[in-house]
Amino acid sequence: MNLWDPKTIHQIMAMFGLRFHKEFGQNFLTDAMVIEDIADACAEAEACTVLEVGPGIGVLTRALAERYRTVKALEIDRNLIPVLKYTLGEFDNVTVYNEDVMQADLQALLAEDFQKGPVSVCANLPYYITSPILMKLLESRLPFESITVMVQEEVADRICAPAGGKAYGAITASVNYYGHAEKLFRVPADRFVPAPKVNSAVIRITLWKEKPCSPKSEEMLFRTIKAAFGQRRKTLANALSSGFPALTSEQIRQAVAQVSEDPLIRGERLDIAAFTQLSDILLEMLGVN
Ligand code: SAM
User: Fold this and answer.
1) Radius of gyration for the alpha carbons in the chain, expressed in angstroms and rounded
2) Are 203 and 183 within 8 A, CB to CB?
3) Which of 58, 101, 120, 259 is deepest in the core (most CB within 10 A)?
4) What does pLDDT average to over the chain?
5) Beta-sheet strands, E only, within the chain
6) Claim: this prediction has a pTM higher than 0.90
7) Are the beta carbons of 161 and 180 closer than 8 angstroms?
8) Spatial contact of 133 and 160, defined as CB atoms under 8 Å apart
9) Which residues surround ligand 1 with Cβ inside 6 Å?
């Protein structure tokens, strides 16, 4: 079954009386090599479980099912469920759930799988909700091995940017708190039906087994990151002054001086270790106010 062939995709959609739902970010992959490469990149061990977000008509799901012990796929569009029964019927290691990943209880869904072995995530993500899905997966604290996902290329570049780079932002620092992100390869827009307006890229986030940074308060760490990038053209000190109105400019100046010799430094120059240090300092200052 060549589910990557645009002709087959259109035939299947017509057979089930379906149309592509833009509001669900439905852009289906049509490049067999790309599908194989994503499935290969997703995990090292065959004896693992893969959680797929948004199987669509099942093109990537089939490649995953051929490689790994168990595949659990969450699809929000109930109209695609009968299609997936048809396209995945020959696999007894795949379970499809008609669920919104943002509402799903992933802990309950994967509890048994985490007992059996490694669990990874793989997806061609719907672009309208990429960052919330990634943050939900990371903030779930579930011990995923890795998260391999197709996202808009611009988002891939932001997530994988080095500190100090132009694309470095709140999402880069936040993702880096949970794992190491790398851009694997680019996928041009014409490899999907319907074709999106922008190019895509596949990234892999390998979660830290032990986090390299331990802030006194995670909430404060994320508040600090958010404040630092709240007003991008401002210096870190000015951005923090807006984000932490309870602190005096002198306190902010002192806090910034502890992480950098440059009083005019901007947020994008701080790596996650520096953000952790800064958030601990701000937490202490807020405590004595
Ligand atoms: N995996 C297929 C492929 O590569 O051809 C489809 C990928 S398409 C970019 C995104 C898929 O995610 C669609 O099938 C869409 O219906 C589904 N989806 C969108 N939002 C979702 C959500 N919140 N939870 C689960 N699935 C979702």
Assistant:
1) 21
2) yes
3) 58
4) 96
5) 28-29, 49-53, 70-74, 94-97, 119-124, 146-152, 179-187, 192-193, 200-207
6) yes
7) no
8) no
9) 24-29, 53-56, 59-60, 74-77, 100-102, 124, 126, 129
